[in-house]
Amino acid sequence: MTTVRLPLFPLNSVLFPGLVLPLNVFEERYRAMMRTLLKTPEDEPRRFAVVAIRDGHEVAPSAPGMPDPTARPERGPAAGFGPDPARAFHQVGCIADAATVRERADGTFEVLATGTTRVRLLSVDASGPFLVAELEELTEEPGDEAGALAEGVLRSFRQYQKRLAGARERSLSTGADLPDEPSVVSYLVAAAMVLDTPTKQRLLQAPDTSSRLRDELKLLRSETSIIRSLPSLPSSDLTRGPTSLN
User: Which residue numbers delimit the Lon N-terminal domain (predicted)?
Assistant: First the structure.
């Protein structure tokens, strides 16, 4: 078992390997994390782990009146996550490699990172200025018939895109060619579909690529059928991604 110890960044969304993660960092605990990452030698990756927050747990207010005007802000690296922070997070997450960490004049940070490797959360250390996790790296097994399943998922995903574009009353952007490597397909489709966080989390922690692709094929067919039956959906609801209060 390969384990790593990395700074931990909880989010209200799921990060998949290969996907880009932009962050607007303003909470002090995460600003401290970014200041530490900036000390990493230039020839080494600036890595941290991203885990999704379980339903019912919220990020602590960062200042009086945000977001609850009557709330007193909690302090410390585990603020908002209870006495045992590990219980507030899903147990499978993703390592992020920060290609860009830019500090603004006001001390906040603009970060651009990319998901790399899935990890399982083993423990959380809240003794420092930010959360640090002990993590087990997870290998991505292909499973059975991954190639054929990926082809089917891509076909269904194109239909889903067309139906979604119609529901948004917008034109479908052709964009770049979609990949054909099964694991890459599985992560791209999981990230691109309009799904709730628990469903995306289920896809992230699938035991192998084939299992993820089979799940996605069912979801694509179901979602496409639902969209087909609706005359129109509010484009703002479909296109607005989750916002992280960090």
Answer: 6-224
Q: Which two tokens stand for residue 164?
A: 């979604």
Q: By C-alpha distance, which of 43, 53, 73 is closest to 197?
A: 53
Of 112, 130, 124, 102, nearest to 32 by C-alpha is 130
Interior angle at CA 206, CA 48 and CA 19, nearest 5: 40
CA distance 99 to 114: 7
Lookup: tokens for 128 = 């420092």
Name the band, by pLDDT with cuts 50, 70 and 90, for residue 64.
very low
Q: How many CA atoms lie within 13 A of 25 on its CB side?
A: 28
* 4, 137 contact by CB (below 8 A): yes
Q: Buried (b) or exposed (e) across 181-200, using 16+ Cβ within 10 A?
A: ebbbbbbbbbbebebebeeb
Alpha-helix runs per DSSP H in 20-120: 28-37
Hey, how many other C-beta atoms are within 10 angstroms of the C-beta on 100? 12
Is the previous residue joined to 67 through a cis bond, with omega within 30 degrees of 0? yes
Show Cβ contacts of residue 59 under 8 Å, excluding neighbours closer than 6 positions. Answer: 10, 12, 27, 53, 80, 244, 245, 246
CA separation for the pair 117, 93 (Å, rounded): 9
**Which amino acid appears at position 244 of this protein?**
S
- What sign does the CA torsion over 33, 34, 40, 46 have? positive
pLDDT in the model for residue 66: 45
Assign 141 to helix, strand or coil.
Answer: coil
pLDDT confidence of residue 230: 62
Written as one letter, the residue type at 174 is T
**Residue positions counted in the chain:** 246
